[in-house]
Amino acid sequence: MPSWKWKWVNAFFRRPSMPSMPSTPTKPLRSPVKPQNKTLYSYDARKSLWCPTSEASGTSSDYHPNAPLFSLVSWNVDFAAPLVVRRFQAALSHLEQLLSSTPPPPPTIVLLQEVHSSCFKPLLSNAFIRKFYQVTNISSPHSYSTITLVPHSLASLVSSVSRIPFAETRMQRDCLYFDLAVPMSGGPAPKTLRFRIANTHLESLSGFGDRARPKQLEAISTLLTASGVDGGLVAGDMNSISPSDQNLPEEVGLSDAWLATGAVKNTETGETGDTGEAEGHTWGYQPRCQYPPRRLDKILTVGKLEAVELQRVGVGLKVEGRATMWVSDHYSLFAKISLSS
Q1: Which residues pair with 164 in a beta bridge?
Q2: CATH topology assigned to domain 69-339
Q3: Could you report the per-residue pLDDT of 185-194, keeping only the tens digit for each?
């Protein structure tokens, strides 16, 4: 692990002045910020390029309102370690294997964090992604960022896509979200409900980070419970590193999916052997270090949407070369999400 990242890890557990970061931090934004309206992009095989879905041909939907269930993957893929493109390609291969299993999971939304700008080319040229997914962005707004992949089978239900910068951040963090208008057949009459799905990477480090994360998650909670939104979900790297982070989801009105579903034993090879509360840890194993593993990554829900299954994936995943590298220092979370009317 590079020396700067050890400094970052050290800062997780103490409160000195903030260490230098690999990217230039921005000054905290103190004025109100507004969502930036975005669009989904689809690969158009006829044009051999990615373009706004409204301009693409050949996309379709096979969503069945009688089965209001989808899956979700959230993964911090680590922009900072060496071999960033090779590691990212390995992560994509692992996702393809996971999502191509028999029987296949329900339509699966993929939320990625820490995607380096150099990884967009392999992402957008990946045959599996081109065939089955639409994406929220085809470039990175910064040196690294979040991106969400929406399966074609759900994309026709997407009514809007937005990215909103946090009002207070020194690391250019934001919330990327989209709305699903889902036809529901239960009850006395069919109706369409609006569900909001958010992808985020909350502020890192202690000190300023401790003060920023509650405001950032509260802002997300406000988005997920806005008027006209029937249910919401946010997933990503919550950087839960301080005692003040432990009850933060509940304090802002969100339900922690891991606590709601209970510990689910990981079914992948490379199992850590964790039991009980430790089964939720997503960081601290790859590699092991002097600090204890922690549950930094979370899926949080509210309203008529809940996680019914949750497990860690990407456990023990490596790429081979002159030096063996972990694909990411984070495990991924894989959940099944149920919608109710």
Answers
A1: 175
A2: Deoxyribonuclease I; Chain A (3.60.10)
A3: 867 778 999 9
